[in-house]
Amino acid sequence: MAEATPYEGFSKADRMLRTWQELDVPDGWRAEIVDGKITIMAPPSKPHNFIAHLLHRALTKAAPDDLGVFQTLGVGIPVLGEVYIPDLVVIPEDAVEGDPSNPHPAEDALLVVEIVSKSSADADRKKKLWGYAHAPVPLYLLIDRWAEEGPAAFLYEDPKNGAYLKRTTVRFGDPLYLPEPFDLEIDTKRFPRPE
Q1: Residue 39 contacts by C-beta under 8 Å, 6 or more apart in sequence?
Q2: Phi/psi at 188 (nearest 5 deg)?
Q3: Which InterPro entries does this chain map to (predicted)?
Q4: Can you tell me the distance from the alpha carbon of 154 to that of 184, in angstroms, rounded to the nearest whole number?
Q5: How much is the pTM?
Q6: DSSP H or E stretch at residue 82
Q7: If you count Cβ atoms within 10 Å of the first and of the last residue's Cβ in the chain, which end, N or C, has fewer?
Q8: CATH 3.30.420.280 fits 44-187, yes or no
Q9: CB of 89 within 8 A of CB of 95?
Q10: Would you give per-residue pLDDT tens digits along the chain (195 residues)?
């Protein structure tokens, strides 16, 4: 008789999630489930971290007291079997309680921020855009130093049926406005441009 595997009887999505939960990823590295595959990402660059720092500080000051601004918090999109690790996520503080090995439902997030790296460009611009819209996450902020039209921030709003109905593009150097519950203008002049 064949010996049962530890994941026998689980769906592919469940097996992927369990494998993701059991990974021992070095500090600073991140593991995500994107497009049905586990992807390991190296620590971000200094410019990437600096943008995350500026956004984190601005969001922390503007967010209502019951919201938390978290870096590298796993968010799950069960309908797609995906787990993303956004650079920043704004979520009610009480939603992050519980088992730390389980990703938090992306649908609880009010805002997710992805800062594009050369290696993550396709996933951030297409796959995660689609995934966050399916969650649905009300606001998806994509900071893209490598955008074809030049460094820019893209704010996606109003998700319906797996797509965002509104996109605002702001070039680095221009102010970026985030609507309620933030009502925040972010100065992008300090966002580093690619060298």
Answers
A1: 31, 32, 33, 123
A2: -95, 5
A3: Nuclease_put_TT1808 (IPR012296), Restrct_endonuc-II-like (IPR011335), Uma2 (IPR008538)
A4: 15
A5: 0.81
A6: strand 82-84
A7: N
A8: no
A9: no
A10: 444 444 455 566 666 666 666 667 657 666 656 677 767 666 677 998 999 999 999 999 999 999 999 987 889 888 888 888 899 999 999 887 776 667 889 999 999 999 998 888 888 899 999 999 999 999 999 999 999 999 999 999 999 999 999 999 999 999 999 999 999 999 999 999 987
How large is the greatest C-alpha to C-alpha distance in the chain, in angstroms? Answer: 67
Which tokens sit at 42? 């190296």
Structure tokens at 124: 């951030």
Q: Which amino acid is at 194?
A: P
Helix ranges restricted to H, 23-77? 46-62
- CA proximity to 135, closest of 102, 110, 113, 98: 110
Q: Is 58 helix (H, G, I), strand (E, B) or coil?
A: helix
Q: Give buried/exposed letters for 175-187 (b at 16+ CB in 10 A, else e).
A: ebebeebbeeebe
Determine which helix (DSSP H) or strand (DSSP E) holds 77, and give its type and residue range: strand 75-77
3 state DSSP class of 95: helix
